[in-house]
Design brief:
It is a single chain. The chain is an alpha/beta fold and 314 residues long. It has eleven helices and eight strands. It has an eight-stranded mixed β-sheet, sandwiched between helices.
Length: 314
């Protein structure tokens, strides 16, 4: 099917802002451009019980996080959220709409992590930050008012990559125990040869040139060698056995759709419980734009239902 009419309308609004492609500007300008278009085309921000910004100890100093609490009495499950943006763009506001939605729909405390960005901090700084934040949250379960036996991790695009990597780190390092991972439009493999890169590599939402640029900034001078590291390309892990229940949500018009589909198949072959859903007519990272795309709310709610089920809440 063609782009959904809501996506096409959004595309026209983005184009009208006349912002240069990420691959053609400095990291600082790319970050500013992201803030500009998100302010110009705002998504919905539903109310939650409480939102708190703070810092916690990270691998290289203070690590900012944002804590979303539901209106209900706890203890609550814990959802760790890692924003997207090619490991180079994004902050605690980047995925605020979906953080709020997940807080309410899962009835969970959501901890969003403002991990260090490339190129100032290259691989593996971002996944180490996200893993450290997850460990901290579990170790401070009483302070956060969470049930540390019910933990999920989630993220979009590069955040989906970090989600998959944190799940592998937790398995490889003996914890924390993660029950569910949700990967929205994830980056899974340092490889540009899959057909979807050719079919959708000029998408307004994410281009092949931008992905190449993001990988180069993230992996640095050792881009080829680092790209084969499973903590950069999670599909390249020696084994995918023992990973948590997984929900993978993709968009039809996304250069990353093939690698996400391949990861779902690889996880299933390793015995992992996986649900894979493609949203037709949608573009990369559509799920972040609640209130702009009807499918965004549907996709986030699908993920929340899966998380609740893994927690035994449904």
């Amino acid at each position: 099917m063609p782009l959904h009419p809501q996506v096409e309308a959004f595309r026209k609004k983005r184009v009208a802002l006349n912002l240069a492609p990420n691959s053609q500007v400095s990291p600082e300008q790319a970050r500013e451009n992201s803030r500009v278009w998100r302010a110009a085309i705002p998504a919905d921000q539903e109310s939650v019980g409480e939102i708190t910004d703070r810092t916690i100890p990270g691998p290289a100093g203070d690590l900012p996080i944002r804590i979303y609490r539901p209106t209900t009495q706890g203890p609550h499950p814990l959802v760790m959220l890692f924003h997207g943006g090619g490991w180079l763009i994004g902050d605690l506001d980047h995925e605020d709409p979906s953080s709020r939605r997940m807080c309410n729909q899962v009835d969970a405390v959501v901890v969003s992590v403002d991990y260090r960005l490339a190129p100032e901090t290259r691989f593996p700084g971002a996944p180490e930050d996200c893993y450290a934040a997850t460990v901290w949250a579990v170790e401070h379960a009483d302070e956060l008012g969470v049930d540390a036996s019910n933990v999920a991790v989630t993220g979009t695009s590069a955040g989906g990559n970090l989600t998959a990597v944190v799940a592998q780190m937790a398995r490889d390092r003996g914890g924390p125990n993660i029950k569910h991972q949700v990967l929205f439009c994830p980056v899974i493999d340092y490889d540009f040869d899959r057909p979807s890169y050719q079919e959708h590599g000029d998408s307004f939402a994410l281009t092949q040139d931008s992905m190449r640029y993001f990988w180069e900034q993230y992996l640095g001078p050792g881009v080829e060698a680092n790209g084969h590291n499973p903590y950069a390309s999670p599909i390249r892990a020696e084994s995918l056995a023992g990973l948590p229940q997984t929900t993978i949500i993709t968009a039809e018009f996304d250069p990353l759709i093939d690698e996400a589909h391949d990861y779902a198949g690889a996880l299933k072959s390793a015995g992992v419980d996986v649900v894979y859903t493609r949203y037709d007519g949608m573009a990369h990272a559509f799920n972040e734009l609640i209130g702009i795309f009807d499918a965004a709310r549907v996709a986030v709610d699908e993920a929340c239902t899966r998380i609740r089920t893994s927690f035994g809440s449904d």
